[in-house]
Amino acid sequence: MGIQKGGCGKSTTTGILSYLLKEDGYRVLAIDMDSQGNLTELLSETPSNEFMGRSVLEAMQQDNVEEYIVSINDNLDLLPANNFLATFPRWIYTGKTYQGENLPFQGNPSLILDQILDPVKDKYDFILIDTPPSLSEQTTNALCASEYVVVMFECSNWCYSAIPNFMDSIEGARTFGNKDTQVLGILRTMNDVRRSDAKAFNEMIEEDYPKEVFQTIITRKAPTGRLALYGFNENPEIRQALDQYRNFYKELIERVKGQ
């Protein structure tokens, strides 16, 4: 899930898809590549700083992913993140970790995540990666580790202007990575039905990318927003929170199976 703009529903959508996939019996690994750690907190219901020293950052620095995977339940695992993931670029270019260790990196800095996932990729039916709101080393690694990308589109002018640059980043991952990274689709999110400009931007992105847009449009709903508060377990609003995502989920599965 990606776009370099914040507030587009990347973490929420990644968490919901992880939940829906595991409910259908798929084996899922969710990876948090955003130092805010929102996906980590959504799925684990634990503050992201509780994973200090046992996160995706250490997995990449130690070249050992299995040691840092956290089991959420039988079908869902998590590779968590916290705010120290923001030091990832410094480690790549200087060899210095946030703990003061010297661990020089050698290799392609865009393929670190892809390479550490190689030993575990066959254990899962789906690996979902949440990305930060920037075209950073974290995002580049996520794109290069992905076969498919869901581009998030929040119905606004700033997000509309961000789409071409993000599409170029996906093209770069396809060229320089090993996964032939493809756009699976564009998901229109955070739609405010009260705003005429949101409707206009939804129509504009569909005109620009008619084959890529999903038919489902995710609107702003309070129960979905409160997932960050109540989580997926013992949530009295879980049905209302997930309802509109089920149609997107069906579309996504159909596209994946059709590739």
Note down, in words, how this protein is organized.
By secondary structure, the protein is α/β, with parallel strands linked by helices. It contains 11 helices and 7 strands. The strands form 2 sheets. It has a 4-stranded mixed sheet, with helices on one face. A 3-stranded parallel sheet has the order 5-6-7, with helices on both faces. Strand 6, helix 8 and strand 7 form a beta-alpha-beta unit. Helix 1 (10-23) runs parallel beside helix 2 and helix 1 packs across helix 11. The longest helix has 21 residues, at 238-258. It is globular and about 55 Å long. The two termini are 18 Å apart. The relative contact order is 0.16. The mean pLDDT is 92.
Structure summary:
The chain is α/β, with parallel strands linked by helices and 259 residues long.
Map the helices and strands.
Blueprint: H1 10-23, E1 28-32, H2 38-44, H3 56-62, E2 70-73, E3 76-79, H4 88-94, H5 112-117, E4 126-130, H6 137-144, E5 148-154, H7 157-176, E6 182-191, H8 196-208, E7 213-219, H9 222-225, H10 227-230, H11 238-258
Parallel strand pairs: 1-3, 1-4, 5-6, 6-7
Antiparallel strand pairs: 2-3
Alpha plus pi helix count? 11
Number of strands: 7
Task: Report the order of strands and helices.
Answer: HEHHEEHHEHEHEHEHHH
- Kindly state the percentage of residues in helix: 40-55%
- Which structural class should the secondary elements be placed in? alpha/beta
The largest sheet has its strands arranged as 2-3-1-4
Keywords:
about 260 residues, alpha/beta, three-stranded parallel sheet, 7 strands
